[in-house]
Amino acid sequence: MLLAVPPGGFGAQLGVMRAWLDANCGPDGWAWAPAGTGGVVNDALAFYFIEPQQAEAFIRRFCCAYRPLRPSGLS
User: In this structure, what are the phi and psi dihedrals at residue 67, rounded to the nearest 5 degrees?
Assistant: First the structure.
């Protein structure tokens, strides 16, 4: 799942997101990496989940203002 980074960054929300991920997915149940789109390295993050249900829960919890991105070529 790709998530657009807000123009000002995630700020304190990033710590909240990481705590939620650890509590709900376990420290080994998720990962993230920079996933820039359009040649910009830091405009998106890729989140990886072992369980699809955890990805869905993350989207419901954190993607209210910025929608997940769909990389070109994926449906």
Answer: -80, 150
Residues 6+ apart with CB under 8 A from 69: 2, 3, 4, 37, 44
pLDDT digits (tens, 9 = 90+) for 3-56: 777 778 888 888 999 999 999 999 999 999 888 766 666 677 888 999 999 999
Query: Rounded to 10 degrees, what is the CA torsion of 35, 2, 25, 53?
Result: -150
Measure Cα distances from 16 to 1, 30, 33 in Å: 18, 15, 17
What is the rounded CA–CA span in Å between residue 13 and residue 19?
A: 10
Pairing of strands 44-49, 30-34: antiparallel
Sheet arrangement for strand 30-34:
30-34, 44-49, 2-4, 68-69
